[in-house]
Design goal:
The chain is an all-alpha fold and 625 residues long. 77% of the residues lie in helices and 0% in strands. The chain folds into four domains: 110 residues, Tetratricopeptide repeat domain (Serine Threonine Protein Phosphatase 5, Tetratricopeptide repeat, Alpha Horseshoe), CATH 1.25.40; 129 residues; 180 residues, Alpha Horseshoe (Leucine-rich Repeat Variant); 131 residues, Leucine-rich Repeat Variant (Alpha Horseshoe), CATH 1.25.10.10.
């Protein structure tokens, strides 16, 4: 007993001591983290080391110290700490991540890949991180291969390889006339033909021309450029295109220079057409592929880029198309969308509404693309909400629709098509502004139903299907304008998308408007169109068709007109079916119940089909309606 008591006392003391040491270790970890955030990595390492003296099996202290060692470029020590962290926790993702980084820095490419593969094995949800890390390794491998090949070219005495080095040495001469540097840069650009020359440019510090040469830097960064400075800037932009085309390492390196990062948006806004054209061409190299876009997002403050690039819609030359291509590509990046939120209300929307209201005077092909891009940005809920709450934006959209009746050129039709798509996306929101404009929007869409372009008609019906729920007044006006007869006409001939929008529009109108119910009974004799839609493979169409039918059965004679049809069998099949949308079964059951209540003779057919049980189960829905 005495021995057990001693053991128990010892265990308690050790637990107490560990708790005290853990408290001290955590405090030292926080001090280390604070030093790390301030960039004082030496102090951070000291604090983490002191923490480990208190608690040797604390995984976070090892990984945090490894991270600090990485910053100090002490890669072997970082790897050692990661190995210790994995002894504490064999599934520590951060340890494998940091160890992969350290191996990469030491050119241990296979070991780096193995670390990143471990991350994916531990957590398959980290696939995006895994791809980014493996991409870094692959890029490093390519860089090493390119540089080895370039070195062999130099050693073999190849003339083109030697000329790159000589031209860079000549450009390195200080205090020459600006024209001297412009001419040298053009010669250098002409000498770069392939990956080898691109690599030699990089390995011979070609990118440092902007940092090391004051004449070049001053000319490139001048706010108001004279002719010589414009020529120099254009020459540099051509050079960077030549060295960055298809070369991701050069693309990455170029964006690490602060002057380049700072000047890109300024060059785009410079007002000098040739500078803008070549800046757009350079940025296009980045925006055309995923890695390039990520470099832009990482190194550039893109909050103003949507506004800057949008201004090129006013250009009549190739700049407009280039700017829209870049914007279209950038919208694939979630971080770009997030940055677009910042300036949307204050800068982007005022410019966008101005462009919409000036549609007749602009590059309409570019404007149509710009509107489409704004529509795509609406996939971001924050952006969509801000746009949907902008009164001026709605007014500008309506003005563009109005002008289509005066301008019927193919390019203007593309603008109209795009703006209808934008309106559809914005109508996923619901607010007071939308309710205010509902009658105007539905009225414009009713007018567009006469258009010859089937794409525009389909989108106009789509907008109707989304705007009518916002306003009973809009429904009333649409019904007075003959919307039911028009929808029946389109449903007879329309494809699946038109049918989807058309039957949704009818379901909204017949929900609470008696005139709409009566119009449908008159327009769709014996419910031929609705019965056909009830047999569609599209559950949305079936559900809305069943709802419309159920609503219209209150019209005298409607149920009787269906006596010699197969409506009971169709509704029974849908009510007892296995649709993934329960509303399909519910709407079909309600319609079946209403049918039998309005015209009891349908019950005879129901009995023959053994459907009374389904009818009885549907009665609760009938009574609730």
């Amino acid at each position: 007993d005495g021995f057990l008591a001693i053991l128990e006392k010892d265990a308690k003391e050790r637990a107490k001591r560990r708790k005290r040491n853990e408290h001290l270790a955590n405090a030292l970890k926080e001090k280390g983290n604070d030093a790390f955030r301030k960039g004082d990595y030496v102090v951070a390492i000291q604090r983490y080391t002191e923490g480990l003296e208190k608690l040797k099996d604390k995984q976070e202290l090892y990984t945090n110290r490894a991270q600090a060692y990485l910053k100090m470029q002490e890669y072997e020590k970082a790897i050692g700490d990661c190995e210790w962290a994995l002894k504490c926790n064999e599934k520590c993702i951060k340890a494998y991540f940091l160890m992969g980084k350290a191996h990469l820095a030491l050119k241990h490419l296979n070991e780096s890949r193995q670390c990143y593969e471990k991350i994916l094995q531990i957590d398959p949800q980290k696939e995006s991180l895994f791809k980014d890390c493996m991409n870094e390794v692959n890029l490093e491998e390519k860089r090493m291969e390119d540089e080895e090949r370039a070195m062999k070219e130099v050693e073999s005495g190849r003339l083109a390889a030697l000329s790159i080095k000589e031209l860079l040495q000549k450009l390195d001469r200080p205090d020459q006339n600006i024209l001297y540097y412009t001419g040298g840069i053009r010669l250098l650009t002409g000498a770069i033909k392939d990956c080898t020359e691109q690599t030699l440019f990089r390995t011979n510090n070609g990118f440092s021309i902007l940092k090391d040469n004051e004449v070049v830097r001053r000319g490139f960064c001048a706010e108001r450029k004279n002719t010589a400075e414009v020529d120099l800037s254009v020459s540099l932009l051509f050079l960077w295109q030549a060295v960055c085309t298809g070369n991701e390492e050069n693309q990455r390196l170029l964006l690490t220079y602060p002057d380049v990062n700072a000047q890109l948006p300024k060059l785009l806004s410079s007002g000098v057409p040739e500078i803008q054209k070549q800046t757009l061409a350079l940025i296009s190299l980045y925006s055309e592929n995923e890695n390039g876009r990520r470099l832009l997002v990482r190194h550039q403050d893109l909050t103003k880029w949507l506004q800057i690039l949008m201004t090129f819609v006013s250009s009549t030359d190739a700049r407009a198309s280039s700017a829209m291509n870049i914007l279209s590509n950038l919208t694939e990046e979630e971080r770009f969308k997030t940055q677009c939120r910042v300036m949307l209300s204050t800068s982007v929307l005022p410019l966008f509404t101005q462009l919409l209201t000036s549609a007749k005077l602009l590059n309409q092909a570019a404007l149509a693309r710009c509107i489409g891009i704004m529509g795509n940005l609406c996939a971001d809920v924050v952006i969509r909400m801000q746009m949907a709450e902008c009164r001026e934006c709605w007014q500008a959209c309506l003005k563009l629709v109005d002008e289509c009746f005066d301008v019927s050129t193919p390019k203007y039709q593309e603008c109209l098509f795009a703006v209808l798509g934008l309106m559809m996306n914005l109508l996923l929101e619901s607010n007071g502004i939308i309710q205010h404009f509902a009658v105007d929007i539905s009225g414009r869409c009713m007018s567009l139903l006469r258009e010859k372009d089937g794409r525009i008609v389909t989108r106009a019906i789509g907008v109707l299907s989304r705007i009518l729920p916002a306003s009973s007044s809009a429904v009333e006006e649409a019904v007075k304008g003959g919307v039911v007869k028009k929808m029946i006409k389109f449903l007879k001939a329309g494809g699946q998308i038109t049918s989807n929008y058309g039957i949704k529009t009818l379901s909204i109108c017949t929900r609470s408007n008696r005139q709409a119910q009566e119009d449908l009974v008159k327009s769709d004799k014996k419910f031929t169109v609705l019965l056909k839609l009830l047999e569609s493979e599209n559950e949305m169409i079936v559900g809305n068709a069943a709802f419309c039918l159920g609503q219209c059965l209150v019209v005298p004679g409607a149920a009787t007109s269906l006596l010699n049809s197969n409506v009971v069998m169709i509704l029974l099949k849908r009510a007892g079916g296995d649709a993934t949308r329960t509303s399909v079964q519910e709407n079909a059951a309600i319609a079946l119940g209403k049918l039998c209540v309005a015209e009891p003779r349908h019950i005879v057919q129901l009995r023959k089909l053994n459907g009374l049980a389904i009818l009885n189960s549907s009665m609760k829905y009938v009574h609730s309606t």
